[in-house]
Amino acid sequence: MSKSFSTTRRDFLRTAASLAGAATLPLLIPRSVLFAADQPGANDRIGIGYIGVGRRAQQLMKLPKAAKFIAVSDVSLPQAEKIGEKLKCKHFQDYRQMLELKELDAVMVASPDHWHALHTIHACQAGKDVYCEKPLTLTVREGRTMVEAARKYNRVVQTGSQQRSLTLNRHGCELIRKGVIGKIHTVIASNYPSPWNVRLPGQPVPAGLDWNAWCGQVEPVPFNQDIFVSRSNPGWISMQPFSGGEMTGWGAHGLDQIQCALNKDDGGPVEIWVEGEKFAPPTLTKPHTYEDGNLRCMHPIVFFRYADGPVVKMVTHPQNAGGVFIGEKGQILLDRNKYQVDPVELDAQPADHKLPFTLTPHFQNWFDCMRTRQRPVADVEIAHRTATLCHLGNIVRWVGRKLTWDPVQEIFPGDDEANKYLSRPMRKPYQLPEVI
């Protein structure tokens, strides 16, 4: 890396301080967002950059007409060069250099989970709006710090919980909130797997890849392709140092729909417990081989209880992106771009069930909010609350007993053992900056 984190962060703080000190809101709005929404001119489009240009980022490149590709960055320089050439834009290996570009208005953060917090916070400090892929965080503490950064620097931070923008999902959530099936007492959700430990043999680091920077806050482990590729055998997304497993992977979709439908976007449960033995994560020693378990080892069933009564039971095995909401009068199934009401007559005005799945509405909401400075449909606070619910599911498995949660203070009152999981040690110099 060509610059120290501390030096670049001071640059970001100076930029952000000048923005935060502005007397009127228009001074906080990038000039490029003040366009005519239908046909923006070439010089009026929003300048977009990408932090991380792997598999997921390349799925996020069909943007509204209001977008203009400015730059990409990736710890793999060959990958950054390849995508930069494809998009006809600048490329960087160090994302901090990209954030210094004046023509850059906003960034897409599509890096691994353990980098989301620092990438988002640094972008906010540099005066850029952010679209951050889900899950938002690696820990609860990261999420609260990201919210504080977005608010302090007046940034629009959208999270990649795209079901929030899908017509069928929104309609299903609205039916539940309106009480068409009566008061909800039970929600059946998927039993998402928690992450495993990893101890894979080292392999040669590919040319041009800064593996030390890829590891970031995590103490470096030997490079292995089955760590580096997100969904391989099994990839970092299933490994505890870098991710919360599918509990935060698919759980960030399914549990987000539960939070939304129950109208808990600014809160969370008050009790969490497990049914089954305490979870001891197996250790991956070679692809799909574990020294103390296997890839399909049983995970304890997790229960959440909200203060007003609903209990979420994570008991079903197929991974879905929603849940089954059971009320006094019937039930509603929510899933990706899908909802079903039973009995059907409770749905007085059913939505069109043949709508195509597309990311466009979610992107458009972000672009609209960058212009109006309103908070987006999957605002950083909402995503933090959903990620927290996911983290609570992992923590209760690790602790193996009933926990009390304070969703206002965001702590386990009087429980030192559980509270230690709200953050993780972060390697220097990749620690969270102070933003208060």
Give the tally of β-strands.
17
Uncertain runs are 6-29, 31-40
Rg result: 22 Å
Tell me the β content: 15-25%
**Which CATH architecture of the largest domain is right?**
2-Layer Sandwich
Task: Give the termini separation.
Answer: 27 Å
Helical run tally: 13
Describe the structure.
The chain is α/β, with parallel strands linked by helices. The chain folds into two domains: 5-163, 3-Layer(aba) Sandwich (Rossmann fold); 167-351 and 379-422, Dihydrodipicolinate Reductase, domain 2 (2-Layer Sandwich). The chain has helices at 5-20, 55-58, 77-87, 95-99, 116-125, 140-152, 167-178, 211-215, 225-228, 251-261, 360-372, 380-399, 416-419, and strands spanning 46-51, 67-73, 90-92, 106-109, 129-132, 157-159, 184-190, 197-198, 271-275, 283-286, 289-290, 301-305, 311-316, 323-327, 331-335, 338-342, 403-404. The strands form three sheets. Strands 16-15-14-7-13-12-9-17 form an eight-stranded mixed beta sheet, with helices on one face. Strand 5, helix 6 and strand 6 form a beta-alpha-beta unit. The model is unreliable at 6-29 and 31-40 (pLDDT under 50).
